[in-house]
Automatic annotation (TrEMBL):
The keyword Nucleotide-binding does not apply. Complex I is composed of 45 different subunits. One of its GO terms (biological process) is mitochondrial electron transport, NADH to ubiquinone. Belongs to the complex I NDUFB8 subunit family. Its main location: mitochondrion. It is a single-pass membrane protein. It comes from the Eukaryota. GO terms for cellular component: mitochondrial inner membrane; respiratory chain complex I. Accessory subunit of the mitochondrial membrane respiratory chain NADH dehydrogenase (Complex I), that is believed not to be involved in catalysis. Complex I functions in the transfer of electrons from NADH to the respiratory chain. The immediate electron acceptor for the enzyme is believed to be ubiquinone. It is found in: Mitochondrion inner membrane. InterPro entries: NDUFB8, Ndufb8_metazoa. This is NADH dehydrogenase [ubiquinone] 1 beta subcomplex subunit 8, mitochondrial.
Amino acid sequence: MAVARAGVLGVQWLQRASRNVVLLGARTASRMTKDMFPGPYPRTPEERADAAKKYNMRMEDYEPYPDEGMGYGDYPKLPDRSQHERDPWYSWDQPDLRLNWGEPMHWHVDMYTRNRVDTSPTPVSWNVMCMHLFGFLAFMTFMFWVGDVYPSYQPVGPKQYPYNNLYLERGGNPSKEPEPVVHYEI
């Protein structure tokens, strides 16, 4: 009974002691502060100007997501462009994400990283790519059909075996001498 009482007192002491503990270290460094969260949806031009200033954007470039109840708030609606489209030779503050300090990140930044979706324009249009692909497949199908209709075989001579054309293995008489076989050499 005394052991159980000591355990309960120990737990209560830990609870009281942990109320005043300030968490330190890398674990709390990843926590978002209040000013990082999007604010309420801007309704007036003054609120839009404040939100544009908060995200280091010009008023002309700032456009929030529509207020459809998704929780975007005043976060800016950035163009749906992947990080592939950004200049790789520019001296970025954060080169792996191709971002500068204070620059807002896309709401779906996890989808537009360099190892995910690439939205950069292709050098060749989709019509031309599809024409090349299906043209190649049609040509290969035609060539397989031609090869099936008109087969070609490598010319071969009669099969040659060692040891007098395998005389004994093919059921020859061991007491009788087999006739000599002429092997051709190239």
